[in-house]
Write a structure and sequence with these properties.
Helix content is 9%, strand content 38%. The protein has helices at 2-15, 187-191, and strands at residues 20-22, 27-29, 32-34, 40-44, 47-51, 55-58, 64-67, 72-75, 80-84, 87-101, 104-116, 120-122, 128-130, 133-138. The chain is mainly beta. A hairpin with a 5-residue loop joins strand 12 (120-122) and strand 13. Strands 1, 2, 3, 4, 5, 6, 7, 8, 9, 10, 11, 12, 13 and 14 form a 14-stranded mixed sheet that branches. It has a domain at 17-138. The chain contains two helices and 14 strands, in the order αββββββββββββββα. The chain is extended.
């Protein structure tokens, strides 16, 4: 029985993503400790990450569990986690997001800072969430459907101007209208606007 359990444990370990953990000196992704301000591309299992010594952002659409010591946060797609002094900061690229722990939930607008407490997570004026783990997920953008009516009377070159669209006329010349014999009295010269050094009419 023990012989059968060993291959299963090995497969489970290999198939699971590498742990991601904030440490005092940087951010550990698997066995690599990332330090310094420069962002680099890493992989947690099969999940691509952007990591520096204090910044973490998943480039995958899958959830990423991040160890904060005694607490854990599960980051959804489009969220960036930054160590800021004694606490942390969560942000998105302009979208609101939700923070959930069990049945309790908070909604943040683009960015929120938080501290770890004995009971859970303190988000300042936004509120608190109790527990050892929370999940953060970007809210999907909802765009209202707008019905566009088809224009029943399209504008044609022969029809008068409508809806503030002015008619335009185009004259086509078969030869060069600027030859010296015809330049002074030609229609083309009279159609050329006055040119000033600064380009204004």
């Amino acid at each position: 029985m023990k012989v059968l359990l060993i291959p299963a444990l090995v497969l489970a370990t290999v198939g699971s993503p590498a742990p991601v953990r904030f440490e005092a000196d940087g951010i550990r992704v698997g066995s690599d400790l990332v330090t310094g301000p420069a962002m680099s591309l890493k992989e947690a299992g099969s999940l691509p990450l952007l990591v520096s010594g204090s910044v973490l952002e998943s480039l995958s659409g899958e959830a990423l569990a991040v160890d904060l010591g005694q607490k854990q946060i599960v980051l959804g797609s489009g969220l960036r986690l930054v160590r800021a002094g004694e606490g942390y900061r969560l942000s998105t690229h302009g979208m609101p997001f939700t923070l959930t722990a069990g049945q309790a939930s908070l909604t943040a607008d683009r960015e929120v800072s938080f501290m770890l407490t004995e009971k859970g997570f303190n988000f300042g004026a936004l509120g608190t969430l109790d527990g050892v783990s929370i999940s953060a997920n970007v809210l999907a953008a909802s765009t209202p459907a707008v019905a566009v009516e088809a224009q029943q009377d399209p504008i044609s070159p022969e029809s008068p101007s409508r809806q503030m669209h002015a008619n335009k006329f185009r004259r086509v010349f078969q030869g060069d209208p600027m030859i010296t014999a015809n330049a002074v009295s030609s229609w083309s010269v009279r159609m050329i606007p006055r040119v000033t050094p600064d380009g204004s009419p």
